[in-house]
Design brief:
The complex is a heterodimer of chains A (119) and B (230).
Chain A lengths: L10 H20 L7 H22 L7 H8 L5 H23 L6 H10 L1
Helix pairs in contact in A: 1-2
Chain B lengths: L4 H9 L2 H10 L9 H30 L7 H4 L2 E3 L2 E3 L2 H26 L2 H32 L13 H33 L10 H26 L1
Antiparallel strand pairs in B: 1-2
Classes of the chains: A mainly alpha (119), B mainly alpha (230).
Chain lengths: 119, 230
């Protein structure tokens, strides 16, 4: 058969990953019932990364590809972390300027920090 | 895997990092995958940048507004049989999309086995799940626009940037799902008709279509985490 070039793996792997993805999705839905805070955000990120990792590695067969393709595809998105970091800093600064210049009574520093916590 | 004959044989001789050097320095094509698959990966890479830009834009407006952000848990809550359930429709949509990824992965498997009937059937099932997803999204949008009064320029719950971010991000994702449904149906019908038997029974097109579909599911994982849960 022409399977020599293709990605052919036992079906059990897919069933396992399918089940795990269901489990992680249920778990990440469960985080919605937690209080907003670092613990909840950490769990959201954890389940997100686990789900994304299993989809890319197993369903998209990245785990079985050669290193050259893996790096060509998964390498470039790393630069996006720079954009995300810059925009987070920029957003904080913009909020600070808005609070300082556009809110009626000049907000004391304590208030600014508090407003940022609501995000 | 044993079936992965060529790759496995070469890989067993060299460590992964050595294969990287070999692939780039050999006087031949660098990526040892079908060109269609390499191009689909490149396309998905560019799509990654688009969706990340949208999500980063959303993060920026959410961080920069001093107005309280609407609570997605409440905005997307539904009351079913008199029970108030936060975010329930989004959770169901997530499970539908993951199920469609599972059936797609199996379609790829049956495609490479040359089982045309099962491969096409599973692809059509995948497309069906996709259509259900888009239908539920249409319901969600209708509810938000008509009943809740959410607009791209404002809403009754809080920061006005909420609507713009929401319609932009989920709209673009829904467009991807819709395009994927059409793509899958076309490929499934061609598989069923036996078009690929003429090329010697090569079913890598099923895997390539599958890559696109899994990517759509992948994007939803990030939207679910950052827009709906955060």
């Amino acid at each position: 058969m022409s399977a020599a070039t293709g990605q052919q793996h036992p079906l059990t792997i897919y069933f396992w990953i399918w089940g795990l993805l269901f489990l992680f999705s249920a778990a990440s839905y469960g985080t919605d019932f937690l209080e907003h805070g670092y613990f909840r955000w950490a769990l959201i990120l954890l389940f997100m990364i686990l789900k994304a990792g299993f989809i890319v590695a197993i369903f998209m067969h990245m785990a079985w590809e050669r290193r050259a393709l893996i790096l060509a595809i998964l390498g470039p998105p790393v630069v996006l972390l720079v954009l995300i970091g810059l925009m987070a800093v920029e957003g904080d600064y913009t909020e600070l300027m808005r609070l300082e210049r556009f809110s009626a009574p000049l907000a004391p520093t304590g208030h600014v920090g508090e407003a940022a916590e609501h995000e | 895997m044993a079936e992965n004959a060529a790759t496995a044989a070469e890989a067993s001789k060299e460590a992964p990092w050595q294969t990287l050097v070999t692939d780039w320095s050999a006087d031949k094509q660098t990526f040892s995958v079908p060109w269609g698959k390499a191009m689909m990966w490149i396309f998905l890479l560019s799509d990654t940048f688009i969706f990340t830009s949208f999500l980063t834009g959303y993060m920026n407006v959410r961080v920069s507004t001093p107005v309280l952000w609407p609570n997605p848990s409440e905005v997307f809550a539904l009351t079913i049989f008199g029970i108030h359930m936060p975010l329930i429709l989004i959770a169901i949509m997530t499970f539908v999309l993951i199920s469609s990824s599972g059936t797609m992965a199996m379609a790829v498997n049956f495609g490479y086995r040359g089982d045309r009937g099962r491969a096409a059937g599973l692809m059509l099932l995948t497309a069906g799940f996709g259509a259900v997803f888009v239908g539920m999204q249409a319901f969600e949008w209708t509810k938000l626009i008509v009943e809740e009064g959410i607009r791209p320029w404002g809403n009754p719950f809080g920061a006005s940037q909420f609507g713009a971010s929401f319609f932009m991000i989920t709209g673009f994702h829904g467009l991807h799902v819709s395009a994927g449904v059409v793509y899958l149906v076309i490929v499934a019908l061609k598989v069923l008709r036996g078009d690929y038997e003429r090329g010697g029974g090569n079913y890598e097109i099923v895997e390539i279509a599958g890559l696109y579909w899994h990517f759509v599911d992948l994007v939803w994982v990030f939207i679910f985490a950052f827009f709906y849960l955060w």
